[in-house]
């Protein structure tokens, strides 16, 4: 297994790799999925159902079936409040929104669509659900987010958020998945549907101002006074995503020195620089995809970007350029728990098993409890909802946190808030987050980390997900005694869908992706780049043996 960097990586996207939008949309409408082909069935990963209409994995039949299944799930659970729905700027998101509304309206569901057809970030949907449900015991709201996150322009995604506002747990997604596939197998005979024009005018379809509701509430979680008084000069690149029109109102409302680098929306995302593998991917943690903002780093005190649905963040500093997500998350946790006294002593720190162990060291020094869970933000929703977690994060730059007063903000990932917090940190600390990371690692040790990816078949992914500690024959890892071998997360005992081996100064984890046809190996060393390479080499041998 090797991660080969494409010669296009970091360069402007050539015409030859741009998606044919007309072809993409035609395939969405015309393709009839074959339920006997696994790749064409509805399949919910860690972030909903994803795929492309060009290979039959995301099309109109999928969305009609999933939407009907969600209607039936809501009815079976007595969920009869409004359903908040939002969509990002991917080409497939608008037709998927139209398909969903046709079914939701025909089933009599009260649907809250975005005012004026504005794009809607994932956190704005979660925020809307939670604000509506506050103080209610009945008539609770839930939501749908239509996005494949940062994935390439030919992708579509569809995610259900139940009444807690966060990503649906596996018991819900499996129910929806099974029912949707049964509906497809039955030729959609049991799917209720009306024409889109009729659905849009239905009495159950109402507009909701997601943008201003979200923006007006940000003062409850960000200290804008300190940012404004310090005169922090900020830049933001929305990467053509769902929050593209949110940033100017944020700057205007809170009187910030914030420049929006670009407000271009293009379903081909032709303005992007190409990611590591030669694909266009709106990943704010990728140095290849973030070339535009990295090139502007010296023009701002701090700059930031978000992915297409604005649930991930990337922070660019003068001192260090684009920060790795693990580095910024460590600084953010250290800062927040020293500057949010109303969170109280019980607010733990949540992280996934593949997020940096530097956070473990930060949490220990803070005297806080660490809550370590499998990959998937759904594991943090309950804790963020009831205040047991002050902060939850994953290594792919996804995070959310409590309001100043310790109450819930969002139970899904929010990219805008961690991005803005980089300015609050810079203002209050007098140093940018890159400088603070250097200070932090000088005190607690510097991590060296890498992640490798390789193509994997469904059978290989299934095999890897069932790896057990017994299959690890060695008691040594890169010259150190293995202290722990985990196939379950320490925080909640849930299966991690792979394996993690931990030594005193390093660890590795191997797991299949929940949304792509790949597997991933993560490793981190607190010694050196050479030690990191040894960790990756040994992890690769273990994975190769398991897949042989």
**What does the overall shape look like?**
globular
CATH superfamily membership of the largest domain: Alpha-D-Glucose-1,6-Bisphosphate, subunit A, domain 3
Strand order of the biggest β-sheet: 1-2-6-5-3-4-7
**What's the number of helices?**
17
Structural class: alpha/beta
- The name CATH uses for the topology of the largest domain is Alpha-D-Glucose-1,6-Bisphosphate, Chain A, domain 3
Can you describe what's shown?
The chain has about 550 residues and is α/β, with parallel strands linked by helices. The chain has three domains: about 30-210, Alpha-D-Glucose-1,6-Bisphosphate, subunit A, domain 3 (Alpha-D-Glucose-1,6-Bisphosphate, Chain A, domain 3, 3-Layer(aba) Sandwich); about 215-445, Alpha-D-Glucose-1,6-Bisphosphate, Chain A, domain 3 (3-Layer(aba) Sandwich), CATH 3.40.120; about 450-545, TATA-Binding Protein. The protein is about 35% helix and about 20% strand. The chain is built from 17 helices and 23 strands. The chain has helices at about 20-30, 60-75, 95-105, 120-135, 170-185, 195-200, 210-215, 225-230, 245-255, 290-295, 325-340, 360-365, 380-385, 415-430, 435-445, 460-465, 530-545, and strands at about 45, 50, 85, 110-115, 140-145, 155-160, 205-210, 235, 255-260, 300-305, 315, 320, 350, 370-375, 390-395, 400, 450-455, 475, 480, 485-490, 495-505, 505-510, 520-525. The strands form five sheets. Strands 1-2-6-5-3-4-7 form a seven-stranded mixed sheet, sandwiched between helices. Strands 9-8-10-11-12 form a five-stranded mixed sheet. The relative contact order is 0.11. GO terms for molecular function: magnesium ion binding; phosphoglucomutase activity; phosphopentomutase activity.
């Amino acid at each position: 297994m090797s991660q080969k960097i494409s010669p296009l990586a970091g360069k402007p996207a050539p015409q030859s790799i741009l998606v044919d939008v007309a072809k993409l949309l035609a395939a969405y409408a015309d393709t009839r999925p074959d339920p006997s082909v696994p790749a064409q069935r509805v399949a919910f990963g860690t972030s909903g159902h994803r795929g492309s209409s060009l290979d039959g994995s995301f099309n109109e039949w999928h969305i009609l079936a999933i939407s009907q299944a969600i209607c039936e799930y809501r009815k079976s659970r007595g969920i009869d409040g409004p359903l908040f729905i939002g969509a990002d700027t991917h080409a497939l998101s608008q037709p998927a929104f139209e398909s969903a509304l046709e079914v939701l309206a025909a089933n009599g569901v009260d649907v809250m669509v975005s005012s004026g057809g504005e794009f809607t970030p994932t956190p704005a949907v979660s925020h809307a659900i939670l604000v509506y449900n506050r103080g209610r015991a009945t008539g609770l709201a839930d939501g749908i987010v239509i996005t494949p996150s940062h994935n390439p322009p030919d992708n579509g995604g569809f995610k259900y958020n139940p009444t807690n506002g966060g990503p649906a747990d596996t018991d819900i997604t499996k129910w929806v998945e099974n029912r949707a596939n049964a509906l497809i197998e039955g030729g959609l005979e049991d799917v209720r549907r009306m024409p889109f024009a009729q659905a849009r005018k239905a009495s159950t379809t109402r507009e909701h101002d997601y943008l201003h509701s979200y923006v007006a509430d940000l003062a409850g979680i960000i200290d804008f006074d300190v940012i404004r008084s310090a005169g922090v000069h900020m830049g933001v690149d929305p990467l053509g995503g769902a929050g593209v029109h949110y940033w100017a109102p944020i700057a205007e409302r809170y009187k910030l020195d914030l420049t929006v680098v670009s407000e271009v929306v293009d379903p081909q995302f032709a303005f992007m620089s190409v990611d590591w593998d030669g694909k266009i991917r709106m990943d704010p943690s990728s140095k290849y995809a973030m070339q535009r903002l990295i090139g502007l780093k010296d023009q701002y005190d701090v700059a930031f970007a978000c992915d297409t649905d604005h649930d991930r963040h990337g922070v660019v500093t003068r001192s260090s350029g684009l920060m790795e997500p693990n580095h910024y998350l460590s600084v953010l946790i250290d800062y927040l728990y020293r500057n949010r006294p109303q969170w109280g002593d019980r607010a733990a720190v949540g992280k996934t098993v593949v997020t940096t162990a530097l956070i473990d060291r930060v949490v220990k020094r803070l005297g806080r409890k660490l809550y370590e869970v499998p990959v998937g933000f759904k594991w943090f929703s309950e804790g963020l909802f009831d205040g047991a977690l002050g902060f939850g994060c994953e290594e792919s730059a996804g995070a959310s946190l409590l309001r100043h007063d310790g109450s819930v903000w969002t139970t899904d990932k929010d990219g805008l808030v961690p991005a803005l917090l980089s300015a609050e940190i810079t203002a209050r600390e007098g140093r940018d987050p890159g400088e603070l990371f250097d200070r932090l690692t000088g005190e607690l040790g510097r991590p060296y980390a890498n992640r490798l990816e390789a193509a994997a078949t469904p059978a290989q992914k299934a095999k890897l997900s069932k790896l057990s500690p017994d299959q690890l024959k060695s008691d040594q890892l890169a010259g150190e005694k293995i202290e722990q071998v985990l196939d379950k997360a320490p925080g909640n005992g849930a299966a991690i869908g792979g394996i993690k081996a931990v030594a005193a100064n390093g660890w590795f984890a191997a797991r299949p992706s929940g949304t792509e046809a790949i597997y991933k190996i993560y490793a981190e060393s607190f010694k050196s780049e050479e030690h990191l390479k040894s960790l990756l080499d040994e992890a690769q041998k273990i994975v190769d043996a398991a897949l042989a």
